[in-house]
Structure formats: structure tokens, C-alpha cells
Amino acid sequence: MKEIKHPVKSPTRIKTIIGMIIIILTQSNLVFRSWDKRGIFYASLMVILLCLVVLLLALYRTFFKKPTELCLSNELIILNGEIINSRDIKVIMTMGYFKPVIGILPYKRRIVPMDMTFRYLKDEDRGISNLKSWAKMNNVQMVNKSFQTWI
Cα–Cα distance between 93 and 131 in angstroms, integer? Predict the structure, then answer.
């Protein structure tokens, strides 16, 4: 098989962004109402800080991270500069129909790593068909299933 390259981008994290904004707003309300109760005040403040970090990471990955390239070769996938051997892949999952998100789940993992999720920048149909043929050639299972990632 010759090398096949596709431009890819990190998936959008709109649900995470909206969820973090809602949590920050509700916890901010709790901070303002319970400033005299030290335990609740500091616990809510810590939740706000944690959610701000998650929000900033999600915003960066969604809007500011530059597109990269997915390279399919004989027994390897090169994604974000990381080489993934076909023997190390448990399953490749596709989530969604319009602008599908693809996740590569390695063995000994339950959650797909952030660097192994992507969506095609253009021509999704051709990219997914190339990925399916690569998976079939390398005996890697490919399924349509929703999956979890960190942030």
C-alpha cells in the first residue's frame, strides 16, 4: 500500500465548552452567596478554577490548534507526529454522521487519548473509506460507536 495522506483537525469540543461555562456560572453564584461559609466558598472556588483550566484547554484545542496530517502506510498510522503501529490498536471508532469524529483506541486503554482523536478537514467520505480499507488490510476492527476522551 502506498502512503495516503489526509489533512485532519482536532474535533470540536462545543459540548465541553458549554458544560464548563454552565458549571462556572452556577459555582460563581454559589461563591457569591456563601462567602461567609469558608468550606463551601473554597470548595466552589476550586471547582471554578478546575473548570476554567478545562475550558481553556477545550477552547485551545477547538479554535487555536492548527490542522495536522494523517498518514496511512503499510502497518502504521502517523497522527500528530506520533507513530501508531497497527498491532497496538484495539479498535478504531467513528462517532457521528456529519463531520464524524474518529478515535483510535489502543490496547490497555478504556478512554481514547486526546491525541488519537481527529476529524477530517475535507473530503470525509474518501478519508473514511481509505481508513476502512487500511483497517481491513491490517486486521484492525473499525466500528461506528460513541466514545469518551479526556477533555
Answer: 11
How far apart CA 145 and CA 93 sit, in angstroms, is 6
pLDDT tier at 118, thresholds 50, 70, 90 = very high
Q: Which residues of 77-106 are buried (b: 16+ CB within 10 A; e: fewer)?
A: bbbbeeebebeebebbbbbeeeebbbbbbe
- Alpha-carbon distance of 23 to 18, in angstroms, equals 9
SS3 of 6-46: the string is: EEEECCCCHHHHHHHHHHHHHHHHHHHHCCCCHHHHHHHHH
Answer whether 103's CB lies under 8 Å from 41's CB.
Answer: no
pTM over 0.70: yes
61, 41, 38: which is closest to 49 by C-alpha?
Answer: 41
Spatial distance between the Cα atoms of 47 and 30, rounded to a whole number of angstroms: 11
Task: Identify the helix (H) or strand (E) that includes residue 135.
Answer: helix 124-137
Q: Say yes or no to pLDDT of 151 above 80.
A: no
DSSP 73-88: -SSEEEETTEEEEGGG
Residues 6+ apart with CB under 8 A from 17: 55, 58, 59, 62
